[in-house]
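User: Hi! I'm working on a homework problem where we have to compare a predicted structure to a textbook description. Could you give me the structure for the chain below?
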Amino acid sequence: MAALNFSRPQNLQLLVDSPDSFDIREFKVTDGLNMLFSVDLVVRCSNPSVDFEETIGRAATFRIETNQAVYPEMASPSWSGIVADIEQAASEDTGLSTYRIRLAPSFWLLTQRTNCRVFQQMTDLEIVTTLFTEWGLPFENACSGSYKTRKYRVQYQETDYAFVCRLLEASGISYLFEQRADVTTVVLRDEPEVVAPRALPLDHVNEPTTGRIFATGLKATRRMRSGRSTFADHDPRLPNEPLLGQASSSQHPLESRLEAFTYTPGAFKFGNAGPNDTPTADDRGRTRTDSGEAKLIAERDAAARIAASQHLAFKSNCLELRAGFVLSLANHPTAERFKKLLLTQVTISGTHNTDVVVAADAVSGELPFKPAQRTPKPNISGVECATVVGPAGETIHCDEFGRVRVQFHWDRYGKMNEYSSCWIPTNQPWAGEGFGMVNLPRIGQEVLVSFLGGNPEEPVVVGRVFTNLRRPPFALPEAKNESGFRSKSVPETGGYNLLRFVDTAGDELVEGRAEKDMRTRVNNDKALSVGRDRQMQIARDDDELVGGNQRETVAKDKLSRVFDSMLSIVGKDRLLKTVGNMISQAKAHAIGAEEVINLTVGNSIIYMDKDKIVIKAKTVLVNPDVSPNAESK
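Assistant: Happy to help. Predicted structure tokens:
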């Protein structure tokens, strides 16, 4: 390497709050766009027993002092962070020990905390900056674009770092590190390619010379890629409308035929104002499918694929190069191709007594740069238990679509209220256009929640379970032969409706109960067959209206008992026929007719109308000494 005349550092410094002094022998700094920088050091120390517990996590700064006499225009780079690793590699009889130390930015600490958390009605950028603020990370939001709110974002069993990276990638935002005084600052940029370029281009040379800042060993690579990015989503509000976001990234005849298709439920839902509001469903912000954002998602993916397929690598002696720098190369046969480059990764390596080699990777700065969506979203392959929640004082909390809100048992931040989750669809046995079945989970009930495509941000209630606080309506295991439905009055009064089935052999039973009213409507025929006895008890009135004929057949005796008055009104004729005897007994008996009364027994007749009474018989007795029945015998 020395033969190529790379720059040699004047001094290497490791500043760490420790009583021990470390002499740097080797170093390697890896700094990348959208990645954590790493400073790997091999050091020697006179202490063979460095206290690891005291050293780990300490603030530290690695500094390379440049030779200002040879390179007066080159600043001395430094990286500040914490001691992430320390290893004792060797211990000599001389008392000197060799250690390997790795420095990482404070941002690295986010890789060490795994969490489960819910964020609602926030932009991805707002969520990221919220986490940075909670961690106390020095950061700068240098994004120029505006971002729409997301209805529901979930961090599930993933590190804070993975969650942050996933959100930044989804929004097309890059992060990089800038050293400001003795502090490393995280900088967020959505257009890293438009920053001010390095004032002077790097001269490309084949034979480097001392005292000249240069680039050499340039290698350009082009890889084949998918030329079309297509994203799809489904919106229950628009079930018959295909939702696609598409972007083309290549005119190459073969690449243009290669499509990268991704289906992600909920990907196109953003905060959006407009008509067709549903007040309850939109109680905390209006979220709708946004076709404009769908296209942006596809365009970001296409830009990331372009960046990954066009790669430039070179070596340099410029120690101030860092990921995120924009610069140009001069004096190259195809310099026009490299008039604007965005550095995506820089590696600086060397020893205490050799030249420092800077290896850089770059992409074209003429095109929009977007990070690849490489951080996977957590996948929940099974179901989760959750508790249905809602406002205080309510028993049932739902929106126009029968959706409910829940709090997951892993959510340590929720307050068990209507703010614990987004609206979540509930599985129903039957769902149609204005028909189906509805049975809503109530506040406090335990539900089983699945996730569309395993996406924790697309939950669906698929079942319910009993708990110690929410026990079954039938005493178990004693009533294990029973099944059915038992509801509960709202607000709670102790009342309920019931449909119960008893399947014990010999004692089978179907029981129905209405806490108050019960209405049954049959639009055509109804048949009722009772194999044995039938009992019906009505506490008050019974009204029956028959629009046509009514027929009643009693195979044996019939007893009708009325404890008060009885009124029978016949609109036309009435015929009463008794095969045997008929006895009518009353305290007083009045018979009246507007036209005629006609009594007939055999050939004997008593006829009455308005004007006369006719008695016709073989013998007519008036006040006889014997009863008529005795005489007839």
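For your comparison, note the following. The longest strand covers residues 78-91. The chain has a mean pLDDT of 92. Good luck with the assignment!
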